[in-house]
Specification:
Order of helices and strands of chain A: EEEEEEEEEEE
Largest sheet of chain B: 7 strands, mixed
Structural class of chain B: mainly beta
Number of strands of chain B: 11
Order of helices and strands of chain B: EEEEEEEEEEE
Largest interface: A-B, 23 and 28 residues
Oligomer: heterodimer
Strand content of chain A: over 45%
Helix content of chain A: under 10%
Shape of chain A: globular
Largest sheet of chain A: 5 strands, mixed
Number of strands of chain A: 11
Radius of gyration of chain B: 13 Å
Strand order of the largest sheet of chain A: 1-11-8-3-4
Number of helices of chain B: 0
Helix content of chain B: under 10%
Distance between the termini of chain B: 37 Å
Structural class of chain A: mainly beta
Shape of chain B: globular
Chain lengths: ~110, ~120
């Protein structure tokens, strides 16, 4: 199972782009990179996921390096409400169609006014 | 779409009592749901995989007789904490995913349990 490494914490100014890095050097070819975030005392919120191409949705962009050993989540214009713990997860396949998510410690992103 | 709800959002109970937590997929069917537990300042830990119509699969170290899981329909899974003790106080969160392969998991808002 591929593991991920993320910085413990990051700060970002409101209105600026927040770039959250993640290393997953042991990722295998059929494993996806998922990003979730958890605002204090709430359930995790799905942000985005990708396999090898860069992805963008209304919340964020995901940049995956060509060798797939690392990725960056980009919040283009961070707001105070983006303050949360961000989890980078490599999805593990466990038997048939059941997929479980293994959460690491994540990155605490603090958006400052 | 892809909304998961939990009930109750918080519960306080006395030591020795049992507590049932519901997890519902509101706009999709889920043959599999996952139950997690999160202690303060820690990450989410998977407790068990709930399978519709069959027995749940528990992670190593999770007591199946203490944490009873029932997945009686495609939209509802329940977690019952039996004979709860103060050390069971935690934040319990479920997840489910739409689609046949349930590739993307969506999480419920969580249930905070406090055992006195």
């Amino acid at each position: 199972d591929a593991k991920t490494t993320q910085p413990t914490s990051m700060d970002c100014a409101e209105g600026r782009a927040a770039n959250l890095p993640c290393n997953h050097s042991t990722i295998s070819g059929n494993e996806y990179v998922y990003w979730y975030r958890q605002i204090h005392s709430q359930g995790p919120q799905y942000i985005i996921h990708g396999l090898k191409n860069n992805e963008t949705n209304e919340m964020a962009s995901l940049i995956i390096t060509e060798d797939r050993k690392s990725s960056t989540l980009i919040l283009p214009h961070a707001t105070l409400r983006d303050t949360a713990v961000y989890y980078c997860i490599v999805r593990i396949r466990r038997g048939g169609s059941n997929y479980k998510l293994t959460f690491g410690k994540g990155t605490l992103l603090t958006v400052n006014p | 779409g892809a909304v998961v709800s939990q009930h109750p959002s918080w519960v306080i109970c006395k030591s020795g009592t049992s507590v049932k937590i519901e997890c519902r997929s509101l706009d999709f069917q889920a043959t599999t749901m996952f139950w997690y537990r999160q202690f303060p300042k820690q990450s989410l830990m998977l407790m068990a995989t709930s399978n519709e119509g069959s027995k749940a699969t528990y992670e190593q170290g999770v007591e199946k007789d203490k944490f009873l899981i029932n997945h009686a329909s495609l939209t509802l899974s329940t977690l019952t904490v039996t004979s709860a003790h103060p050390e069971d106080s935690s934040f319990y969160i479920c997840s489910a995913g739409p689609g046949r392969n349930q590739e993307t998991q969506y999480f419920g808002p969580g249930t905070r349990l406090l055992v006195l």
